[in-house]
């Protein structure tokens, strides 16, 4: 009897797999499947809870590495080891036992390099060796696709290469994060800096991009410029036009007016000399990758990139959309075929009706050669009922409709508009007016109609005839040059993806183009969330601003490779080589070590130029917050990842978490708990739903919820 054990990445994924078969038994740690055609002896599905296993921290190797000291750098263990993640011991033990009993193991984690990392890191820590391993590789959690995937399991050759790639990425990021964060923090603290910096290979250049935009805005000097604007009155309506002059010097504009014998605000006559009309056709947008979907959702609904990914994950687990973490905008003929078969059902779900222009695949959307691991985001074969649609949250409905509309748009007619340019002469001075008129909405009728902007309203031109006389009034229009605008979160995703355009080095431009900029499709939103959590940036009205702490970071790393996307580009290019079997993990980690050595040598001199500024944060994480409620002689301190009593060496074990039920506990909350044993009602805790509660300190100095206390 062959015992098959399948590892899913998380419980929801395991549940989706199990529902494609017949379930025999469900337990807290695994699901047992009944024997069937795919699994003649049945199978067991177990799961991680995200990362069951993580890299050990410095102090796990050597206790003295817990303290931040310059003379200990670089911190590079001889061998990098893993440990079970905090709070996940029980599930790890269950997985380990199942792995030991298995005859065949199946990696059914997410189909990307991190999915490979999760499976093999767990396997390595269980100590299980020599068992055959197969890989599930699917793009949808629909029952048919799951069954088909398990019937056609792949070898683990590619999976092992991806594991090497992921582990190289994980270890090198650990090395840079641990060493650079300590190096820059300690050198700046010598200069009076009273906080700490967290530095990362991808997060730091991302903050630097935002800082560069901040500097552009800060250094921008607005200047006036002058144009001649005409307001024309034809029989069929009014319109505006501009003479082809734009000068900083108002006298030059006045000179042109004088040359043509024109005066401001006089009633004059103009002649329509020329009318150019062109019919233009706009094709429907490409199918969505994750980043294009994040960008559109941010522009349309102000959703954060992280919010879009979470919503997409929910829709994926509800089997309504294909795999979300894709960087591809194309599908293969196989997906196109099922989309065509479902066209009417999709239209009904979106509450639209149109006759497809063509049912043949178009290379703009359907191109197998452009599809590697994952195809573009499209709806699955599962078309939701009206009841299921009504059960979706507003975010889920909006995102699903966007995916549906973009997919249907490839069958719809082009958007057609007429662009008109009128040249109106006043005393032989030509004025140009440009307008557009919608002829046919085409694919745009599938999407919500946006509110027209002021410019779009002004772009309407009346029907005029060549040679027609029109009333004219002219004036010298004064405008000011405008600074660049801060990035929105959606634009930041695009900027991270296309930042190669900002580089001067040709080689860097090419590499950044090849690897698609900073981060990956799967990680960009979490990078933005990380730099928000680190308080390097803040978001107001969807605009992204660098904070004083972010400026401090950027001034410290300026001129180093940590501020440049080229470092991460070169790393990503080599990581991809490892994934293809063309590069070596050992070579990569050796180069990372050399980079850190260079950083340790050069930073002490370069950091002398940095002006230390206050970041508005509390002084260091070990500054006293309140008297310890237990021992009274110690003080509760901020220990960076948690709060603890300063008398811990003398045996006082009082600690408080930094986060509780999804909410950050601030210094003030901890102070109130220590002094008054109770807080006011606080909002923003997360369970199955968001809830509010007061916090109290029990007799064992543990924080508990008090739902009885009224707000």
UniProtKB/TrEMBL annotation:
Keywords: DNA-binding, Isomerase, Magnesium, Metal-binding, Topoisomerase. Pfam families: Topoisom_bac (PF01131), Toprim (PF01751), Toprim_Crpt (PF13342). CDD domains: TOP1Ac, TOPRIM_TopoIA_TopoIII. Its EC number is 5.6.2.1. It comes from the Bacteria. The keyword Isomerase applies. This is DNA topoisomerase. GO terms for biological process: DNA recombination; DNA repair; DNA topological change. It catalyses: ATP-independent breakage of single-stranded DNA, followed by passage and rejoining. Belongs to the type IA topoisomerase family. The keyword Methyltransferase does not apply. InterPro entries: Topo_IA, Topo_IA_2, Topo_IA_AS, Topo_IA_cen, Topo_IA_cen_sub1, Topo_IA_cen_sub2, Topo_IA_cen_sub3, Topo_IA_core_domain. GO terms for cellular component: cytoplasmic replication fork. Residues 159-600 form the Topo IA-type catalytic domain. Signal peptide: none annotated. GO terms for molecular function: DNA binding; DNA topoisomerase type I (single strand cut, ATP-independent) activity; metal ion binding. Gene3D superfamilies: 3.40.50.140, Topoisomerase I, domain 2, Topoisomerase I, domain 3, Topoisomerase I, domain 4. It is an enzyme of class 5 (isomerase).
């Amino acid at each position: 009897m062959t015992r098959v054990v399948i590892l899913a990445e998380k419980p929801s994924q395991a549940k989706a797999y199990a529902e494609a078969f017949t379930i025999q038994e469900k337990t807290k740690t695994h699901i047992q499947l009944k024997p069937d055609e795919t699994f003649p002896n049945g199978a067991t599905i177990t799961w991680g809870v995200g990362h069951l296993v993580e890299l050990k921290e410095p102090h796990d190797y050597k206790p003295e590495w817990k303290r931040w000291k310059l003379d200990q750098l670089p911190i590079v263990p001889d061998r990098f080891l893993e440990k079970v993640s905090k709070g996940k011991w029980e599930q790890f033990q269950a997985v380990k036992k199942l792995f030991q009993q298995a005859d065949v193991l199946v990696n059914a984690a997410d189909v990307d390099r991190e999915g490979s990392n999760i499976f093999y890191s767990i396997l390595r820590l269980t100590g299980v060796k020599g068992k055959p391993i197969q890989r599930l590789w699917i793009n949808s959690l629909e029952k048919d696709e799951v069954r088909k995937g398990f019937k056609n399991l792949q070898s683990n050759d590619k999976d092992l290469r991806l594991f090497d790639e992921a582990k190289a990425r994980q270890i090198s990021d650990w090395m840079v994060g641990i060493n650079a964060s300590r190096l820059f923090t300690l050198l700046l603290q010598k200069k009076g800096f009273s906080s700490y910096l967290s530095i990362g290979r991808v997060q730091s250049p991302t903050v630097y991009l935002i800082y560069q935009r901040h500097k552009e805005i800060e250094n921008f000097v607005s200047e006036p410029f002058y144009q001649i604007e005409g307001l024309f009155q034809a029989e069929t309506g009014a319109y505006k036009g501009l003479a082809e002059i734009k000068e900083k010097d108002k006298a030059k504009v006045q000179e042109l007016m004088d040359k043509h014998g024109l005066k401001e605000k006089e009633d004059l006559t103009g002649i329509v000399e020329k009318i150019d009309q062109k019919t233009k056709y706009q094709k429907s947008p490409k199918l969505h990758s994750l980043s294009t979907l994040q960008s559109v959702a941010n522009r349309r609904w102000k959703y954060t990139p992280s919010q879009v990914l979470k919503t997409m994950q929910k829709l994926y687990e509800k089997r309504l959309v294909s795999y979300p973490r894709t960087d591809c905008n194309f599908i293969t003929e196989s997906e196109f075929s099922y989309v065509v078969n479902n066209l009417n059902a999709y239209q009904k779900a979106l509450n639209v009706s149109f006759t497809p222009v063509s049912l043949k695949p178009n290379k703009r959307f359907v191109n197998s050669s452009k599809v590697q691991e994952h195809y573009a985001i499209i709806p699955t074969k599962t078309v939701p009922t009206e009841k299921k649609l009504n059960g979706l949250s507003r975010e889920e409905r909006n995102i699903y409709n966007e995916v549906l509309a973009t997919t249907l748009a490839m069958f719809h007619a082009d958007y057609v508009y007429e662009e008109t340019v009128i040249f109106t002469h006043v005393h032989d001075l030509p004025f140009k007016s440009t307008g557009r008129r919608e002829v046919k909405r085409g694919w745009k009728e599938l999407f919500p109609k946006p509110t027209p902007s002021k410019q779009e309203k002004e772009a309407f031109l009346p029907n005029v005839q060549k040679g027609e006389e029109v009333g004219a009034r002219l004036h010298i229009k004064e405008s000011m040059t405008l600074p660049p605008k801060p990035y929105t979160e959606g634009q930041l995703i695009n900027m991270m993806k296309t930042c190669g355009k900002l580089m001067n080095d040709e080689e860097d431009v090419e590499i950044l183009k090849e690897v698609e900029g900073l981060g990956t499709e799967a990680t960009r939103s979490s990078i933005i969330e990380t730099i928000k959590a680190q308080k390097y940036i803040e978001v107001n009205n969807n605009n992204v601003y660098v904070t004083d702490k972010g400026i401090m970071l950027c001034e410290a790393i300026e001129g180093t490779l940590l501020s440049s996307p080229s470092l991460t580009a070169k790393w990503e290019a080599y990581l991809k080589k490892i994934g293809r079997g063309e590069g070596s993990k050992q070579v990569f980690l050796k180069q990372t070590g050399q980079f850190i050595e260079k950083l340790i040598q050069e930073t002490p001199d370069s950091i002398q130029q940095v002006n230390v500024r206050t970041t508005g944060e509390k002084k260091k994480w070990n500054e006293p917050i309140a008297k310890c409620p237990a021992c009274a002689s110690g003080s509760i301190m901020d220990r960076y990842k948690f709060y603890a009593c300063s008398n811990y060496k003398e045996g006082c074990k009082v600690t408080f978490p930094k986060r509780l039920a999804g909410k950050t506990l601030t210094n003030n909350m901890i102070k109130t708990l220590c002094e008054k044993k109770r807080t006011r009602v606080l909002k923003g805790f997360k369970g199955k739903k968001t809830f509010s509660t007061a916090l109290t300190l029990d007799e064992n100095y543990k924080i508990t919820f008090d739902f009885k206390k009224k707000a």
